[in-house]
Amino acid sequence: MLLFILLFSINPVFSENCIFNVHYVTQSSSFPSNCSQIIGRFRIDENSQMTNDQLNNLFKNIREIRGVLQIWNTQMTTVTFTKSIQNITGDPLDRGLSIMNNTKLTSLNISSLMNSNEKVEIQNNPNLNLQKMCSVIHDVFFNRRFISNNSFDCGCEINGPFKWPKVKTFPENCVVLYGNLKIQGNAPPFEVLYRLLTVTKIYGSLEFESTNLETLGFLQNLQDIESGEDAETTFRLDSNWYLRRLDLIKLQSIKSRNPDSDARFFQNDELCLDPAFVQLLARSSLRKIESNSGMEYCGLDKINNPSTYCTGKLSSMNDRCIRYLGNIIYTNGVGDYSENINATKIPQADIKKMQQLEFVFGGIYIHGTALTNFSLPNLEEIYQMAAVRTPTGDRFEPWYALVLRKNDYLTEVSFPNLKMVFRDLLLVANANLTTDNDLCRKIANSVRVHGAIGMNSLYDCSLFFIEKKSIRVLFTGPSLPAVTTDGS
Ligand SMILES: *[C@@H]1O[C@H](CO)[C@@H](O)[C@H](O)[C@H]1NC(C)=O
Ligand SMILES: *[C@@H]1O[C@H](CO)[C@@H](O)[C@H](O)[C@H]1NC(C)=O
Ligand SMILES: *[C@@H]1O[C@H](CO)[C@@H](O)[C@H](O)[C@H]1NC(C)=O
Ligand SMILES: *[C@@H]1O[C@H](CO)[C@@H](O)[C@H](O)[C@H]1NC(C)=O
Ligand SMILES: *[C@@H]1O[C@H](CO)[C@@H](O)[C@H](O)[C@H]1NC(C)=O
Ligand SMILES: *[C@@H]1O[C@H](CO)[C@@H](O)[C@H](O)[C@H]1NC(C)=O
Ligand SMILES: *[C@@H]1O[C@H](CO)[C@@H](O)[C@H](O)[C@H]1NC(C)=O
Ligand SMILES: *[C@@H]1O[C@H](CO)[C@@H](O)[C@H](O)[C@H]1NC(C)=O
User: Fold this and answer.
1) Looking at ligand 7, which atom is closest to the CA of residue 371?
2) Any bridge partners for residue 447, and if so which?
3) Which residue, 33, 168, 309, 345, shows the most beta carbons closer than 10 Å to its own?
4) From ligand 3's centre to the CA of 116, what distance in Å?
């Protein structure tokens, strides 16, 4: 009651005669013809004794229900009186639309529905085929749904954790799955887990925590993931000590309806990643990839399309290879303040190979060389996931993807096609390189999508270590504090 009074008092559009509170619809119901919006909880049930035609007439002017519509236990065969209703707001205590136990119902028309804030419930209508309403239900309710046990349900669903024995009745042949797939602790038995093999789309997030899983191969046919507005994370893997591989070999799209949704990976010590998965994540609409420690890439023997990558010595690399898996390291280990007597010479042939690369899954570290200029004209994306220890004992944190350090003769750098850097780019102690903010900005501006993956990521061109001779182009997500140096 309080809610209705509140709505009434803040919304002058509603006059008292459109407010019905809890209303059991019967033949004597009537809605004033000037109420296109009615407020209340409207129930049509076995006591209503109304035909669809009578309901059509009763609801003909109604475009919005501020509250709840329930159609329960009727003998109706078709429900079309709902066809012009655009909004059913719902009620925080209840579903917006509830259609239950209508044994003869075969069809429903809610084709004008555009908005609802609450859940939909359509259950136990054994003859109701929802096929023609699937796209409306998807658009309006997405995964806020309890739809089951009708003749056609528009997908199957998970409500709550995917946990034995609750998921005993999870259906076979589920192709489109609504709801968050969350496994915590031991996974359900093999027979049940592998019912997920048929799933190609998940409208919800994926979360695996402290499981005993070694692979996510039971999702090997999964193509698309799209999480809902409330999904803080769309893909989360935490403390899966036995997980070795994801084996999501058909996955091609990861999205979220929440622009701030992240991917999070923590403490999956045995896990290695397929570079294609990392690239997919980075190109997804997720805000950022969070992980406290590094993550290894799988070796070529453990990834999906090994022949599209090259790895190992640049000198033995094929001339047409554009995707490199591994770290490219040239270093003599010289200190930042030492004289660089034995500057490393990178063979021209290696330079050419490096310059043909478009995608690097690993890092590039150029330290103590005699290079005068350095350009990677074709490089578009570089993703470093793990920490790197160089042959001379330096350790780089996983977030440095591209490092140029103590190259005394270096005067020019350019990466004209670089679009994604996961995560940071470090230029330090290259004595002759004028590393001012202009250079930093030039680099940062040429990278359209940054390490923290997000079109509007900020960058921080901190000058550090050696004044004016070092920059760190640090790409951070919008949520992290970052300093820009555009003078404002
Ligand atoms: C509808 O008409 C009644 C009677 O004329 C009037 O009191 C009421 O304010 C009107 N309601 C709306 C929503 O215009
Ligand atoms: C339905 O809700 C939308 C969004 O809140 C609003 O723009 C529209 O006017 C509403 N329609 C009706 C008939 O109230
Ligand atoms: C629908 O039927 C089931 C099983 O008979 C019953 O438990 C449930 O209360 C009914 N729901 C409604 C809304 O009447
Ligand atoms: C639902 O009703 C609308 C409006 O009358 C109509 O155009 C549409 O074809 C109906 N949809 C179905 C599936 O019957
Ligand atoms: C499915 O619906 C039928 C008919 O309404 C009902 O008898 C049965 O109990 C329902 N099953 C479940 C699992 O709800
Ligand atoms: C330079 O390289 C030569 C040959 O590898 C080595 O003997 C010498 O110690 C190096 N000098 C310095 C300062 O590292
Ligand atoms: C240096 O510049 C020359 C001429 O522009 C180019 O051919 C060469 O590949 C560059 N070297 C590096 C290491 O980028
Ligand atoms: C910088 O460049 C000059 C020539 O342009 C060269 O003589 C010098 O050795 C380079 N390195 C340093 C540290 O100045």
Assistant:
1) 13
2) none
3) 309
4) 23
